Amino acid sequence: MEHHASLLAQWLTHVLHLAQHSWPGFAHGAQLSVLERYDHLLNAALAALTTMALTTLVRKNLARIPGPLQQVFEGVVGGLKDMINENIAHHGEKYLPFIGTIALFVFFNNLFGLIPALSPGTSNWNVTLGAALVVFAYYNFHGMKEQGFGKYWAHFAGPIWWLAPLMFPLEILGLLSRILSHSLRLFGNIAGEHLVAGIFFGLMPILLPVPMMFLGLFFGLIQTFVFTMLTTIYLSGAVSHEH
Amino acid sequence: MKKFLTTAFLFTLAAVAFAQGAPAAPKGLFEGQFVAHLSLAIAAAGCGLGQGKAVAAAVEGVARNPQAAGNIRTTMIIGLALIEALVIYVLVAAFAIK
After folding, report:
1. Cα gap A135→A29, rounded to integer Å
2. Contact B88 A222 (CB under 8 A)
3. Distance of CA A229 to the CA centre of its chain
4. Whether residue B79 is found in the same domain as residue B98
5. In chain A, which residues have their Cβ closer than 8 Å to the Cβ of B79?
6. Domain that holds residue B65
7. I need a surface site. Which of A173, A185, A221, B94 has the fewest CB within 10 A?
8. CATH number, domain containing residue B69
9. Residues 67-96 of B with CB under 8 A from A
10. Is this prediction's ipTM beyond 0.85?
């Protein structure tokens, strides 16, 4: 796959006079600076900073009569709360900070695909894999915390004891492949959408990419929703007690 | 549908036979980027059929019981995302083929 660094990375390279050299086994030895090579990390960091800045801004200016930003965030938090309460049976709201952070991070990452000179951080597998690994570690940790170490791993063995040697490896395989499917779905969708918008831009830079960018906004929202929803479902599967 | 599938199958057979019958080329028909494009097309076709079926059922459900629209929509979106993921895997594989 060819590598296209975002305009921001190229501009920063130019302004900061970063050294450009070829990277072994990457982009056919093109001359890239460190920012152009790790473009996705620049964009992911930007998305994380945006998340932190916006949430801090809302938190600092909490008012009885909400301003526009606070109204938007109240809607987001309310929606997430409803989703968590629907899926996680008892006192699921303590997971709201984590799920909300992941949702906002993924959303801003997806949204950066629509801003000229930036590229979506999630169009690189490394970023989505990171997010998926964090989610994986989080729900396993909380599963073990809620159910106890032995009980949590025992429920992978299934209800019938003599089927356990067959079930346990299969369930573990399923557990591990969740990381792959969770991250690849987000990555593929955003990367594909960005690629198609780029091809349309190459055909005719004016007006033609607009419908594609609108679709990009829509898909970015849907994929954020799906990623968050699956995070909630995995979490609920891990922490739910069997009565 | 059956006719279409038969035609598609025969076409594939013909393509394979043609590829085998052709004089030794530097690179076969079913190698390289052509495979990526063809597999993506097949995956997209299957995904279209599957998603169409899912959306049709969801719309029917909403039409019969508009009060359940919210739940049906959420479930449908999750289902569509899971169906779409299969095409995305093929897309990733297509990226991987140089």
Report:
1. 35
2. no
3. 12
4. yes
5. none
6. 32-98
7. A173
8. 1.20.20.10
9. 74, 77-78, 81, 84-85, 88-89, 91-92, 95
10. no
